[in-house]
Amino acid sequence: MLYPQRLGQFTREHADTVAALLCGLLLFLGWFALHLGALGFAFLLLPAAYVIGGYESAREGLTTLFKEKELDVDLLMIVAAIGAASLGLWRREYHLIIDGAILILIFAISGALEGYAMQRTERSIRSLMSLTPDTARILRQGREEEIPISQLKVGDEIVVKPGELIPTDGIILSGYSTLNQAAITGESLPVEKTVGAEVFAGTLNGYGALQIRVHKPAQSSLIQRVIRLVEQAQTEAPPSQEFIDRFEKGYAKVIVVAGILLATLPPFLWNWDWETTIYRALTFLVVASPCALMAAIMPTLLSGIANGARQGILFKNGAQLEKIGKVRAIAFDKTGTLTTGQVQVFQVISVSEYTIDDVLKTAASVESSSEHPIGKAIVQAASDLDWVGAIQVQAIPGQGIVGIAQEQQVIVGNAVFVQQYVTNLPEEFREIVQSWEQEGKTVVWVARGAEVMGVIAIADEVRAQAAATITRLKKLGVEQIVMLTGDNQQTAHSVAKAVGIDRVYAQLLPEDKLDVIRLLQQKYQTVAMVGDGINDAPALAQASVGIAMGVSGSDVALETADIVLMADRLEKIAVAMHLGRRSQAIVKQNIVVALGFIMLLLVGNFLGNINLPIGVIGHEGSTVLVTLSGLRLLK
Questions:
Q1: Measured between alpha carbons, how far is 425 from 434 in angstroms, rounded to an integer?
Q2: Contact 275, 99 (CB under 8 A)
Q3: Which residues pair with 171 in a beta bridge?
Q4: How far is CA 125 from each of CA 128, 188, 222, 294, 542, rounded to the nearest angstrom?
Q5: Cβ neighbours of 144 (radius 10 Å)
Q6: Quick count: other Cβ atoms within 10 Å of Cβ 228?
Q7: How much is the mean pLDDT over the chain?
Q8: What distances in angstroms separate CA 87 from CA 50, 95, 335, 606, one per listed residue?
Q9: Rounded distance, CA 250 to CA 237, Å?
Q10: For residue 263, what are the contacts with CB-CB under 8 A and spacing of at least 6?
Q11: Active-site residue among 72, 99, 169, 333?
Q12: Cα–Cα distance, 496 to 181 (Å, whole number)
């Protein structure tokens, strides 16, 4: 019983190939019967070859004709084949029936090859769909229980054992491991994760067991958003493909009219005999059909989308892959884009009687009670030191924090706030503090009792790859690179100088960023915007190409953007631009090849140098050629 099941499954999965093989076998047997003079046997086999090989094309062509009232290339092929067979029966030149059958056979083989080619792209894209398991191991009352992922709720605690896929996005409650995030973010090396770190559905757990708390619905996980966007990208045709589709509909009508004229006028104009006239008209229907032109664009763009997805670049549709290659100006948000968006301790100085560790420990004792990012950065910097949390801690928003540690009052905050508790600020610190502030860093003073202990500089870390990315974009020929930020001028210019951006727009509201994008578009037409926050969403929507940071980006930014960088790696922008430019080059090459083949075959037909099978081979060969050419972007 197993063999029939396997045979049935193979037939369903490779229906086009099976049809082409049966068509070829029946064609050979029919030709052999004709050669032996067994006409009855031949007339039984050859119609079967026509039906089996041409059924799918005829079905699609007739569906398009009756439902959409449009002529389809598939239908033209069937008409040409049946016309050749009819001419062969009429003239009793049965080799023409063989010609028509060869036409259908080659068309069937071409369809099967194109199907396999496109399946390769589909597999590359749809491999995303298999990245999440169907069930999750949930902890309930101290016991493990497997439930479908769709039943997970925010707040549930799940267990992931070594070597298992993470079932949904969450925060690690306990455990330590390395996670392979290549499928989601494109990062080639495993990433270390421990308590408090966020993990993503579809990533592969390494050697450690993890206990994870679900912090968002399963359907809102990063991988599920990626899957929805990829599905959307596959169904949306880019402008170039829409133009080709509209062109094909009009072109098919022109072919039919021209075919009718070619089948009727030459005997009166050039004294052709009717057999030659009809045969060349049928060949014209084949060679003039725009199959190769239709295949010139979408295989290329889908291959580019698949390539980008493997590298952590998510194109929401083929139109954005086209546009990114044409970008002439790029605007970057600062916080969370050019910088990590996570402040950290940059430098610490202390007065002579204290050490840097003394300053950090004292500051951490009160900041450990604070939820402010600056406080968290100080506590993180002092994590390896031995200190005790303060009591009676009181935070004054925008100024500082005070508390009692080791029976002494501790004051941490800005200069104005700290001066309320100490007699004076050390003069030797003023010059370096002033230079820090000019560089855009936040300065925190630390005092104990009535005495200043030292000063801590806090800064938002510039992304390691930011400067190299800007340099690469300039080498790629981007004419203008600017930075847009709501931050102050000093901080903005400090970051811009560090990464190599010359033009800065600072202290901007969201609508101001929108206005800057519009100004850039007036001068450079195709403008990209790179951002991560809710305040970037209007500018991302206005830009020709909106690029969002996938990990740090807000949901609004991710939904608004056209391209998502899954690992927040800025260098992928240059990779995306290269993909876009390469896709455009391949599309242009394919269009030239397709049109060149059509013109060559048309000239050959009018000169009488090609027959119907040769015309079919040239026509279908060019179609397969441009399809395979488009698949080059999978590499």
A1: 13
A2: no
A3: 198, 213
A4: 6, 18, 16, 21, 28
A5: 11
A6: 12
A7: 80
A8: 15, 10, 74, 19
A9: 18
A10: 277, 278, 281
A11: 333
A12: 30
DSSP assignment string, 255-290? HHHHHHHHHHSHHHHT---HHHHHHHHHHHHHHT--
Confidence of residue 403 (pLDDT cuts 50, 70, 90): very high
Query: What is the reported pTM?
Result: 0.65
Asked if 342 and 460 count as a contact pair (C-beta separation under 8 A), the reply is: yes
Residues in the chain: 635
Give which of 119, 129, 124, 105 is closest to 13, Cα–Cα. 119
Spacing of C-alpha 372 from chain mean position: 35
Q: Which residue in the block uniquely carries the two structure tokens 């102050």? A: 488
| 248-263 pLDDT per residue, tens | 667 777 877 887 888 8
> Is residue 333 annotated as a catalytic residue, yes or no?
yes
How many whole angstroms separate alpha carbon 173 and alpha carbon 384?
Answer: 21
3-state SS of 558-624 is HHHCCEEECCCCCCHHHHHHHHHHHHHHHHHHHHHHHHHHHHHHHHHHHCCCCCHHHHHHHHHHHHH
The answer for residues whose C-beta is within 8 angstroms of residue 220's C-beta and 6 or more apart is 169, 555
Strands (E), 376-431: 391-396, 400-405, 408-413
For residue 470, pLDDT over 90 is answered with: yes
On the 0-12 / 13-18 / 19+ scale of CB atoms within 10 A, 468 is middle
Under 8 Å between Cβ of 626 and 292:
yes
Round to whole Å and give the CA distance between 310 and 332.
Answer: 24
Task: Work out whether strand 480-484 and strand 329-333 pair parallel, antiparallel, or are unpaired.
Answer: parallel
Q: How confident is the model at residue 188 (pLDDT cuts 50, 70, 90)?
A: very low
Residue with tokens 């973010």: 185
Q: Which two tokens stand for residue 263?
A: 């089948």
Annotate 467-480 with three-state secondary structure: HHHHHHHHHCCCCE
Element (H, E) at 214: strand 210-214
